[in-house]
Amino acid sequence: MTQTVDPNTDYRAVGRSTNRLDGLEKVTGRTRYAGDITAYGMLHVRLVLSPYAHARIVSIDTAAAEAIPGVVAVFTAKTLEMAGAGTSSRSQSPLALDEACWCGHPVAVVVAESEAAAEDGAAAVEVDYDPLPVVVDPEAALLPDAPLARSRSEDEVSEIAGGGAHAAVSDEGAEEEEEEEPLSQNVSDKAHIKKGDIEVGLREADVVVERTYRTHPVHQSYLEPQSITVVPGPSGLQVWASAQGLYETRSSIAKAINLPERQIHVESVPIGGAFGGKFGLLEPLAGAVAYKLRRPVRLVYTRQEDLLAGNPAPQAVFKLKLGAKRDGTLVALQAKVIFDAGVFPGAAASFGGMILANTYNCPNVDIRAYEVLTNKVSTGAYRAPNAPQSTFALESTVDALCNELGVDKLEFRRKNALREGDMSGFRQRLPRIGLVECIERIQQHPLWQQREQQKTVVPDELKGWKVGIGVAVGGWPGGTESAAAACRLEKDGTFTVVLGTVDLTGSDTSMALIAAEGLGLSVASVNVAHDGTDTMPYSGGTGGSKTIYSMGPAVLKAAQDARRQVLEIAADMLEAAVDDLEIEDGKVVVRGVPSKNVSLEQIANSSMNFGAPYAPVYGNGRSAIANASPMYTAHLVKVAVDPETGKVRVLDYVAAQDVGYAINPAEVEGQMCGGITQGLGWALFEGMEYDENGQLLTPTLMDYALPHSQDVPNITPLLVEVPSGRGPFGAKGVGEPPVVPVAAAVANAIYDAVGARLEQIPMTPERVFTAMQAE
Amino acid sequence: MTQTVDPNTDYRAVGRSTNRLDGLEKVTGRTRYAGDITAYGMLHVRLVLSPYAHARIVSIDTAAAEAIPGVVAVFTAKTLEMAGAGTSSRSQSPLALDEACWCGHPVAVVVAESEAAAEDGAAAVEVDYDPLPVVVDPEAALLPDAPLARSRSEDEVSEIAGGGAHAAVSDEGAEEEEEEEPLSQNVSDKAHIKKGDIEVGLREADVVVERTYRTHPVHQSYLEPQSITVVPGPSGLQVWASAQGLYETRSSIAKAINLPERQIHVESVPIGGAFGGKFGLLEPLAGAVAYKLRRPVRLVYTRQEDLLAGNPAPQAVFKLKLGAKRDGTLVALQAKVIFDAGVFPGAAASFGGMILANTYNCPNVDIRAYEVLTNKVSTGAYRAPNAPQSTFALESTVDALCNELGVDKLEFRRKNALREGDMSGFRQRLPRIGLVECIERIQQHPLWQQREQQKTVVPDELKGWKVGIGVAVGGWPGGTESAAAACRLEKDGTFTVVLGTVDLTGSDTSMALIAAEGLGLSVASVNVAHDGTDTMPYSGGTGGSKTIYSMGPAVLKAAQDARRQVLEIAADMLEAAVDDLEIEDGKVVVRGVPSKNVSLEQIANSSMNFGAPYAPVYGNGRSAIANASPMYTAHLVKVAVDPETGKVRVLDYVAAQDVGYAINPAEVEGQMCGGITQGLGWALFEGMEYDENGQLLTPTLMDYALPHSQDVPNITPLLVEVPSGRGPFGAKGVGEPPVVPVAAAVANAIYDAVGARLEQIPMTPERVFTAMQAE
């Protein structure tokens, strides 16, 4: 079927399921995170959050707070004097200047000797607010007469495109002049993605389906809250942050306090989940406070602060029209897409629009994407940013279209699926991708093959519930980033890979496997060590499903370089040719002459000692991959719906995903199961709910519903390996795709069960019940 | 005269006197040392030192100490359970087990929440001692019936050679059976260095001079006392130590507590002077305490502890006989050398013996060297270990021999000096050395040329004092160590050199100059960053005058590698050939076409960013130099002696030193002036004095006399540049030689002034006066 990499290659390390290097420390609670760092004289920071979604700040009285024993300082935007105060950068301008713009907007910080004093201090800060009109709904915010979510200078408004004409990007890449639209200045970005002629496409279509979908903001819900500890030293600030990128953290703090980047020393520290939500939030604020006071400070969000003042995934609205011919050929894709950025721009609406055009071939495409500001917390990345929302809309509509056409849902998808050589939604000429292979893998699965019979199998306690099976597909374009790594021989004959990447979801373990393979050793001989920004080999943030793909080649080269150096030393010691040598069981051996050998330990001691005759083994690897390897996945889900309450139970889940090559199969399966579980959160449970005044109704985990273990069904991850030409051993990214099609697959299964089309996630019992009543 | 490197080369960076990178932080007091590291919950360690030079420990009662508020624990060797307890390794067995063997031997440690509580606790530990016979004098300790300085197992005694026959090493390298000598088991090592036939040599000599010399232990007197902070973490211990080598520290702690080396994380931290005295002392002890308690601990010596329980330079005794022909040809060198190791072996007596044969060609050599144990603190390295002592003996005797022969003292030295191709005292066939060049440089100096006239020039306040001029030469064999380094481009277009070496006396600044030269940039574009043991490129301890010599080539290669990478990227960006490019003013420019250029910042941003097309610039350098480059120096000093008191004032000092090539001339001159100042301490002031019970009479800086600023004359450093074939740009080591001949030069000047030959250092007024009376 597919040209997968044969798992029976002669690889020694990669391709074998391997325990995580950090597993023991994490499960035994010994791992220390950014918020566990302590320093002598450390102060604690607590935020004062606005209770209003929009209000002018008349005055802030800090006297009572400052009088509390233990309180060292209270800062407002005016007294903290950050370089970026008042700009439209959330992290550079973390404190409200004159205007609080969401319920949860920090207006002051209290710094105290203890957490308790800081909390008391925060409660004692008196802020006089003058409420302003609030806009919460993104569709309402788009209208020309909508209240403005945030006052802005004229410069900023013209810069962020509100209401003005914007160039559209056509399929040919040419820019065209666009007609003016009457829009609110809340619109902070817009894009028009065009291909072919949408009017022609819609005319050609035998069937056209049009639907509108809505989503809520969804929080990344990492286990570790946003955390940072900053310790001022003689040459700047030392920083431990729960952040996905060390260099990014360095840059953002340096910028905030106008110091050279070299004076910001960001240390590597394990992070407790991120999912895109830790690409910069509190670091400039904490850095500025520590710098101002010249004392160590720690800022760890409470769970409530994380929900009120984090950076969740954006809410979105899709009006989507698909047209197809009777034979199942997709001919028209028209969409209006709104992504709600909250108070600050950055929701990447155009990216969400492109995702709509990144699964199927369609000759006529017309997508208008809008980013709009509202009085809600501003947003950040969350695992495959914008793809779960867009894919919920697209794949629900495809399902409806297939129903209208009466065609097989997987056949329709297979027929229209993007393939190698096609143009992607991101205008990339596609390399070999595995979308068709994933669809075919699902097609062959018994849950699909015997789907009518499978629907009759339900647990006893669900008797009377309606059962349905749904499918959906989705993908992620991937990314690239240049990277470097080092590989060092240790005195005990093992090797250390030196990295600047933050370990997420086992990336270190995969790096160790890659290095072991490059060295020709088992993974037990390889350790991974992290460097901070002062000395680390360059690597970008961990995220975007690009870590193994982009960083892996640098690690592989570093390991191969170290191996070459080892063999050169051994060749000299053994008076043999490098080509006649092999590494076995911690020794370099002359092939065929096992008695002629030298241990790696001996090589280490001959190259790392006073008077050592050989140079130390210190391999170096650098890489820059030109193009991303897009990834796809196909999901199949069986659900049961309680017709009396609308409650949904997911009974079985099968996911086929093209991972290129599974470096650490257990970890890849873990990523798939984790992503699907988060997708079930999007589908059924999670959503930040605001009232019409912009008050967050779900500011705690009592109100914000995360999936519980009993909500997660048996998940069958099927690894499809269509090798990438560039990733190490053919590997592609694996982290983002599994979350992408889950909501759509579940919605389609619900439709299959009860004939009701859900157009809003999360699909709570109330919404499902209402939808059933409407049918 | 000499083939020096022309200072008017086209070098851009090296060869220019450059301010130290760490200067501002150090002079403004902002530098943080190992003892400044703080950690939450940190405990303080204070030692309980034996008041007896030798005593059986009957019992240690810690109850009273433990009852003091704030005292957390009291450990003895038995309760601390270090892996090396009871062995003959001072640092692995830091606490006396059953027997205290010197006045100052730590018998217990008190760990407390505060420094004050630890001190109170230490005072409250009750130790019941049973005094044992004491041996203090090394000559007495050698005798067969001497009391043993330390009880030892039979294994240990046979291992350390006490009294047994030892093989001698002859000139031809062959080992011969030696006759037995009646010696005490205090003798822990001995060596017999032979060449030619000493009896023949002595018979051939027209003049034979025989003298006996004695020295005292001398303390390194670094500004920063021995200090260490250890913080236990989830994966072992994090360590900041005032230590010259990070890897050495890692190994010693790992060994002491039986942990894999990987679990010891030694961080780079500036040190405040070391001079050889910080190659490992407290680290295993502090590591064991922190590991036992699983709490951060800090141990910072008081100055008194440093004097009582440091590791000073060993006391030595020389019986030296030199024979020469009337024409000034040296024909016989016979010596008996005793180095007093204190309680633990490690004084490298044989090395001290070889130093005697490392200045002049002599056909007949017979040197017997003995290392002996006494009830004194054990010794460590101190700037050119053993060479000041041996050179004081050798060069004083040469001076006497010249007087007997009536030959010119510099002519005699020039005539007999070792030259390229000769066999050194360390049996190295000498590469090009600069001993003759240094002698000739001194010969030409006005202070020598017009020495009789110069002797009449004295300050008014010294009227009536006798003035003399003395010369002495000396050297250091040098060392090598394999090394690696990295060089990284920064986003601002500057470069960072990544090192694992500890900066001593400006070595970082020299590394920056070397890297700048390799990059083709000015030193302002280069920063130096230090890595810890987890991730650093391998490098050994800083010391032995091998840092620039051995590490410099790795830095140069790393910089050249980074430059190559920069040019390759620029070539692609500019569509030009690498060979047509040059780096100028932060830009890569096509030669002859200044408008065709790309800035280093642009190159950084094209190679270190999301989607960057080029791999990050990350250069790598490795080196292993096969042979050391021996260094020599010639000193000329003018002194005045008060005939009524014996007080000596040094009036002028000239030193010519072969430095190969001065990477940073100001720093090289600084090294010379610093070494000479320390040498004046050896010559005139410093010496640890013990009474017959082994009580240290100089345990504070009130008693132990360091040279004051007014004791240091004008010093004229003359750089002689006889390039090394291996060091970077021809550089040789520079740190050790300047201390070597000082005591001899001063002694010879005193003889010239008053006709009295001083045979013991320091040459205190009392000793000078006594010697004058004896003439």
UniProtKB/TrEMBL annotation, chains A, B:
Q: Where is the Aldehyde oxidase/xanthine dehydrogenase a/b hammerhead domain?
A: 28-133
* Keyword terms of this UniProt record: Molybdenum, Oxidoreductase
Q: In its UniProt entry, what is this protein called?
A: CO/xanthine dehydrogenase Mo-binding subunit
Q: Which organism is it from?
A: Thermosporothrix hazakensis
| Chain segments annotated as coiled-coil in the UniProt record | none
Q: Where is this region: Disordered?
A: 147-190
Q: Do you know which InterPro entries this protein is assigned to?
A: Ald_Oxase/Xan_DH_a/b, Ald_Oxase/Xan_DH_a/b_sf, Ald_Oxase/xanthine_DH-like, AldOxase/xan_DH_MoCoBD1, AldOxase/xan_DH_MoCoBD2, AldOxase/xan_DH_Mopterin-bd_sf
Superkingdom to which the source organism belongs: Bacteria
Sorted alphabetically, which Pfam families does this protein's record hold? Ald_Xan_dh_C (PF01315), MoCoBD_1 (PF02738), MoCoBD_2 (PF20256)
Q: Which intervals carry biased composition (Acidic residues)?
A: 172-182
Identify the stretch annotated as signal peptide in this record.
none
SUPFAM superfamilies given in the database record = CO dehydrogenase molybdoprotein N-domain-like, Molybdenum cofactor-binding domain
Q: List GO molecular-function terms, semicolon-separated.
A: iron ion binding; oxidoreductase activity
